[in-house]
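dude i think i finally got it to work??
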Amino acid sequence: MQNNLKIFFPEYFKHLLVVTYSYLSQALEEAFNSLEGITCNKAEGAMYLFPRLHLPQKAIGAAQAAGTAPDAYYAKRLLEATGIVVVPGSGFGQVGNLKSLVKVLVVSKLH
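look at this
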């Protein structure tokens, strides 16, 4: 009986994590898509979303004046203003008009 418990609980825990992160990433995807100026594809994994920011020209100009990529400028300002950490898409080799951020879901508890 005890050997069966050792096998069952890790699989159950793994399944619980996958279901939880899938649920939360779907909820966050829907939240991103409800915001003006942001679009987000469906999560391909359970923990990462790649929202695309459609930054206004004024924000792009401010970033250029600061000598930085627009998404990196936005990520830094977001961190300073809210404490939210995101990774600029330009750090992944995105070029041109793509202004994406990587959002990593970190869950402490469900409400």
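The longest strand covers residues 101-104.
im so relieved honestly
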